């Protein structure tokens, strides 16, 4: 591929290459956003399955340790978060950085050519991105996945230490009956209906 200085001898070729480089940046940004949406969806589905396991799954024994089944789903969520982070941060983001760097070199060389406007889009986008929250794009990706990982770690610790326990329906029913008795109100009861009782009994002769 020609260097930016070599492209400066042909302004039309320089603009064409710059346009293709910008298209590549757009494509890599879209890939990064798609990857993050997929990561959030995958972790959300895993936590949904973990919530069902927390309610109905019970416990399992792993090397002598008794842990809730939901704890395993949280570990899977942590693994997925780490995998998506590595792909996003050290794959697509690095490719995006390389394309931005090349576009900035083109924009620097374009200043030597009499073009009707400055080709400084990549430089301005990068400057604005770094000004937001005073962090680079890579640091923002670290924070994004770090927040997800922190939530999963807290959930795992709560499950592992048994701070959170599922409430059985019978326990809720007995608690409601006790509360009603304390307040002096009769507890709700269900009277079984005899199988001989029929809504059309009056038609019998």
**Spans of 5+ residues with little confidence (pLDDT < 50)?**
197-205
The count of DSSP E runs of length 2 or more, i.e. the number of strands, is 2
Largest sheet: 2 strands, antiparallel
Percent helix, as a range, is 55-70%
Mean pLDDT: 82
C-alpha Rg, in Å? 31 Å
Shape assignment: rod-shaped
Taking strands numbered 1, 2, ... along the chain, how are they ordered across the largest sheet?
1-2
Label the structural class.
mainly alpha
What fraction strand? Answer: under 5%
Cα end-to-end separation:
100 Å
Order of helices and strands: HHEEHHHH
Please give the count of helices: 6
Keywords, separated by commas or semicolons:
single chain; 205 residues; mainly alpha; two-stranded antiparallel sheet; 2 strands; 69% helix; disordered C terminus
């Amino acid at each position: 591929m020609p260097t930016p200085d070599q492209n400066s001898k042909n302004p039309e070729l320089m603009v064409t290459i710059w346009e293709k480089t910008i298209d590549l940046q757009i494509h890599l940004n879209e890939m990064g956003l798609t990857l993050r949406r997929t990561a959030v969806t995958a972790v959300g589905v895993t936590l949904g399955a973990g919530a069902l396991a927390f309610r109905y799954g019970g416990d399992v024994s792993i090397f002598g340790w008794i842990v809730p089944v939901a704890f395993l789903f949280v570990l899977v969520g942590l693994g997925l978060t780490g995998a998506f982070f590595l792909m996003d941060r050290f794959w697509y983001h690095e490719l995006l950085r390389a394309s931005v760097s090349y576009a900035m070199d083109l924009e620097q060389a374009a200043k030597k050519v009499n073009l009707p406007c400055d080709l400084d889009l990549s430089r301005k986008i990068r400057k604005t991105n770094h000004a937001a929250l005073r962090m680079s794009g890579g640091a923002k990706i670290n924070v994004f996945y770090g927040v997800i990982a922190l939530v999963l770690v807290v959930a795992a610790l709560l499950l592992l230490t048994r701070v959170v326990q599922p409430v059985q329906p019978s326990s809720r029913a007995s608690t409601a009956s006790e509360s009603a008795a304390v307040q002096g109100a009769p507890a709700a009861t269900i009277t079984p209906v005899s199988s001989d009782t029929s809504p059309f009994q009056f038609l019998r002769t």
